[in-house]
Known about the structure:
The chain is an alpha/beta fold. It has 4 domains: 2-163, 3-Layer(aba) Sandwich (Rossmann fold), CATH 3.40.50.300; 179-248; 266-465, 3-Layer(aba) Sandwich (Rossmann fold), CATH 3.40.50.300; 470-516. It contains 15 helices and 20 strands. The chain has helices at 42-49, 82-98, 116-127, 140-146, 165-207, 216-221, 225-248, 316-324, 355-362, 367-376, 392-405, 422-434, 446-452, 467-494, 500-516, and strands spanning 2-13, 16-27, 31-35, 57-64, 67-71, 103-108, 133-136, 149-154, 157-162, 275-279, 282-286, 289-294, 298-301, 305-310, 330-332, 338-341, 410-414, 438-442, 455-460, 463-465. Strand 19 (455-460) and strand 20 form a beta hairpin.
Amino acid sequence: xxxxxxxxxxxxxxxxxxxxxxxxxxxxxxxxxxxxxxxxxxxxxxxxxxxxxxxxxxxxxxxxxxxxxxxxxxxxxxxxxxxxxxxxxxxxxxxxxxxxxxxxxxxxxxxxxxxxxxxxxxxxxxxxxxxxxxxxxxxxxxxxxxxxxxxxxxxxxxxxxxxxxxxxxxxxxxxxxxxxxxxxxxxxxxxxxxxxxxxxxxxxxxxxxxxxxxxxxxxxxxxxxxxxxxxxxxxxxxxxxxxxxxxxxxxxxxxxxxxxxxxxxxxxxxxxxxxxxxxxxxxxxxxxxxxxxxxxxxxxxxxxxxxxxxxxxxxxxxxxxxxxxxxxxxxxxxxxxxxxxxxxxxxxxxxxxxxxxxxxxxxxxxxxxxxxxxxxxxxxxxxxxxxxxxxxxxxxxxxxxxxxxxxxxxxxxxxxxxxxxxxxxxxxxxxxxxxxxxxxxxxxxxxxxxxxxxxxxxxxxxxxxxxxxxxxxxxxxxxxxxxxxxxxxxxxxxxxxxxxxxxxxxxxxxxxxxxxx
Length: 517
């Protein structure tokens, strides 16, 4: 069944094209992932499909053979958990879709407020749904587990790919490789044409000059004008071919990895072994409500990088805020300079300076690194704008850039990826992996956490758990296993009828577990 059919769709604002979609449709059993950079029109497209009001001029036809149920993106700007609000809205939509025949479920950034457990619940719920789904997401792990069709808005066009998100990434990599090979081949061809053109032109000029071994009378009698014209004509034709080839030659866009070795302020350097933060044992609470306990002294070292995870409401954001505002029982290195990015930073600002003025003034990195990060966060077109004139999304990216590039040797980042698009999240991951100082980051993006591979701190069962806790538990478990096996071994050794193979197997197992410790 064809639920949605889109023909010759064109969306404009004040005469400028936002995007076009010559032909798209939504069919049975499709889970469509709609992706693209922020601002390209993803939410506008789903609003058009769901017949929601829009300020854009819309041409073309959208034929709907179904009901549409849209869950818009929920901005977590209150004390109530954004994850719980998001989950409640999705549950209502699922109940509604199960009661309505021929329905299309549309979700706009459904994972942006969900913790990892809530994301697992959502994947299971959507995977069991019989109706088609159209979802906007920047969460690559989520997309990888669910979607079987990709719509990407890029270069003002909606591109469709029938396949999983991982297959689409493979397709893009192969396409990039092919484009690079074609670019190199065209460069070789142009170089060859240019050599031939210069050769024809040189021969044409030589044909008009008298050779030394020929007399003037013989030279005048000889007619070289035909040869000269022929050579110049060939040279001119080749020039045209070269000009045309150069006009169509486009260098493929290749993302250059960001380099962070260009620090212009070396007063931030701290030894990798030096402690920059020491936490005492304490309870962490908010409004007299205890959230979790730190049951042993903890340290953050000079260049240590930590990923803090836990359920929504466990106390991650409270912990980071209290650390930055020095409201914990904690020792801080006198040379410590903390940079703090928190959720809901996209609030109005009265700052009248331009983005470029503020960032350049605050950045500890050289201009190349600074400009690359601003480009990766899509701020290059806003450099001369006043900070007070930035949109909500631009303001989030500006404040994130200001923290990342600023004069800090400990970054405290509370869900910095939450409102970034996929390309910006990839750039953030690259920046944090190469950042030369300490980082503590909270995120629910499973791919980001996996790729960062930072030291894991987790709030679980109202306790802050670190890798040493995991190893202590593992060691205790191993010790119990060894004791039990040793008891069995002693019994077998004292038994004259015991099998030698059994004794050997248990001895081997004891050695294997002992090596773990």
